[in-house]
Design a protein that fits this description.
The chain is of the alpha/beta class and 418 residues long. It has helices at 4-17, 24-36, 52-55, 112-119, 126-134, 367-374, 380-396, 402-415, and strands at residues 82-87, 90-92, 102-106, 139-143, 153-159, 166-175, 180-189, 196-205, 210-218, 224-233, 238-247, 250-259, 265-272, 279-288, 294-303, 308-317, 325-334, 340-349, 355-364. It has two domains: 4-261, no CATH class; 367-418, no CATH class. The strands form two sheets. The chain has a ten-stranded mixed beta sheet, covered by helices on one side.
C-alpha cells in the first residue's frame, strides 16, 4: 500500500508540473526531477530536513502586484552598486542599472550555447532540478577579459510572500580571463505568507579571474527557500562564497565547487541563525580535481529556542590532485537547551601528498567567559551578547564591504534579540 507521504509527493509533483517551463533544458531538468522524485527522510541527505510544510502547499504563480507602489529604499540594502531588480519571479529592467564592459542577458533570450552552460551542474539533486525546471527569471552575466568592475553587482530579489506562491530564479556568471567581479545576492519578502523560493547561481571563473559572492536570505518567517550555488574555478583563479541564512521557515542551501586547474583557490563560509521552529540547512560539496589547489571553509550555526541547524560538508580529492590543501571547520553555538545542530563534515581522499582536515564543535556559551567579563563590571546580558557577536565575528569580519557588513550585523542583532 502506498504511504501517505509518497502520495503527497506524487500530488506535489503533479501540481509543480504546471509551473515548469518548456525550453529543452527545463524539460530535461523536469525529467530528472520526475525520475528522482521529491526526497523523503529515508534519504540520508534529507534525514534532518522536514518537507511536510513544503508538501502541504498549494503551489501557484505569484499574483500580479504593482511594483511601482513599493519603496525599495526601505527594504533593500543601500550602497553604491550596480543594481539588478527581480520581483515575484520577474526581472525588472526599468529599476536595474547598466553595467560597463558586461553583457546582461535575460533568461528567455539565451542562445543554445548559453542554455547548455545553464544545464551544467556540479552536484545535482532534486531541488536544483526543480529550480531549473520552474525558473521564470534570471540573468546571464558575461564579464569581459581584464575587466575589474568598480562597484559590486547587487541582485535584489523581492517576493510578495503570498501563500503557496513559487518563484524560481536561475542566474549564471561568466568571468573571462583576469576579470574581477563582486556579486551580492539578496532575497527579501514583503509579507509573512508561506511560499517557496528556488534560486540557483552558477559561475565559471576563468584563468586568473577573481569572484566574490555573498548571499543573504531574509524572507518571510513562513517562507521555504531552496538555494544552490555552483562555482567552477580554472587556473590561478580565486573565489569566495559567503552565505547568511537569516530568516525563513525552512532554508536548505547547497554550495558546490570544483577546482579544475592548478593554482585555484576558494573560500566558502556560512552562518545560520535558526530559532523557534525554523530549520536552516547548509550543504557544501568541494571537489579538488587538479593538483596544487587550496580551499578553506568555515561554517557556523547560532541556534536559539527550538531552532534546528544542519551542516553537511564534503571535500572530495581526486586521484592525482597532489599538494591539495583543503580545510573545513564547523562550529555551533546553542543559546538554549532546546536548540539543535546536526553536523556531518566528510572527507574522501584518493591522492597522496595532500593536507586536508575537518573539525566540528557544538556547545553553549562558556560560563567561564561570562564570569570573566562580569568580574570586569560587564552585566551578564551584555557579556553574553559580546560572546555571541565574537562567535559570529569571524564570518562578518570577512565581509569587506562596510555597508553590507553593517547590515548583516544589524540583522543578527535583531534576529537573536541581542
Amino acid at each position: 500500500m502506498v504511504g501517505l507521504s509518497e502520495k503527497s509527493r506524487d500530488v506535489a509533483l503533479t501540481r509543480l508540473r504546471s509551473l515548469a517551463g518548456h525550453s529543452s533544458w527545463q524539460e530535461n531538468s523536469w525529467q530528472s526531477l520526475a525520475l528522482w522524485g521529491i526526497p523523503t527522510a529515508k534519504h540520508e541527505d534529507w534525514k534532518y530536513t522536514p518537507l511536510d510544510g513544503f508538501l502541504s502547499l498549494d503551489y501557484r504563480e505569484p499574483r500580479k502586484n504593482n511594483i511601482d507602489s513599493i519603496s525599495f529604499e526601505s527594504i533593500s540594502m543601500s550602497f553604491d552598486c550596480y543594481r539588478l531588480v527581480f520581483f515575484d519571479g520577474k526581472f525588472n529592467p526599468e529599476l536595474s542599472d547598466d553595467i560597463p564592459n558586461t553583457t546582461v542577458t535575460e533568461l528567455n533570450a539565451l542562445d543554445d550555447v548559453q542554455q547548455q552552460q545553464l544545464a551544467h551542474t556540479i552536484s545535482q539533486e532534486a531541488f536544483s532540478a526543480l529550480t531549473d525546471a520552474t525558473a521564470t527569471a534570471g540573468i546571464y552575466i558575461h564579464i569581459a577579459n581584464n575587466t575589474q568592475l568598480d562597484k559590486p553587482i547587487y541582485l535584489f530579489h523581492l517576493n510578495s510572500g503570498g501563500d503557496g506562491e513559487l518563484v524560481s530564479y536561475r542566474h549564471h556568471v561568466e568571468l573571462s580571463r583576469l576579470a574581477e567581479c563582486h556579486i551580492y545576492e539578496h532575497h527579501v519578502s514583503l509579507n509573512q505568507g508561506g511560499g517557496v523560493t528556488c534560486a540557483r547561481l552558477t559561475a565559471n571563473v576563468s584563468d586568473g579571474a577573481s569572484f566574490e559572492h555573498i548571499k543573504l536570505i531574509e524572507e518571510g518567517s513562513l517562507q521555504h527557500h531552496f538555494g544552490h550555488n555552483d562555482i567552477t574555478l580554472y587556473r590561478d583563479s580565486r573565489a569566495t562564497s559567503h552565505t547568511f541564512l537569516l530568516e525563513g521557515k525552512l532554508i536548505r542551501h547547497n554550495t558546490s565547487s570544483v577546482l579544475k586547474a592548478e593554482g585555484g583557490e576558494i573560500e566558502m563560509n556560512s552562518l545560520n541563525l535558526p530559532k523557534q521552529d525554523q530549520v536552516f540547512d547548509t550543504r557544501t560539496f568541494l571537489r579538488h580535481k587538479s593538483a596544487h589547489c587550496n580551499s578553506h571553509q568555515t561554517h557556523k550555526v547560532i541556534g536559539k529556542d527550538n531552532g534546528v541547524g544542519v551542516f553537511n560538508g564534503m571535500i572530495y580529492v581526486d586521484k592525482g590532485a597532489i599538494k591539495t590543501d583543503g580545510q573545513m571547520d564547523n562550529h555551533n553555538l546553542l543559546l538554549s537547551e532546546k536548540a539543535q545542530v546536526n553536523s556531518k563534515p566528510q572527507l574522501e581522499i584518493y591522492a597522496d601528498d595532500v593536507k586536508c582536515s575537518h573539525g566540528a564543535t557544538t556547545g553553549q556559551i562558556d560560563q567561564n567567559q561570562v564570569f570573566y567579563l562580569q568580574a570586569r563590571g560587564i552585566p551578564k546580558a551584555k557579556a553574553e551578547k559580546m560572546i555571541t557577536f565574537a562567535f559570529a565575528g569571524e564570518l562578518t569580519d570577512a565581509i569587506e564591504h562596510e555597508e553590507v557588513r553593517k547590515h548583516i550585523i544589524r540583522r543578527i542583532e535583531q534576529k537573536l534579540d541581542l
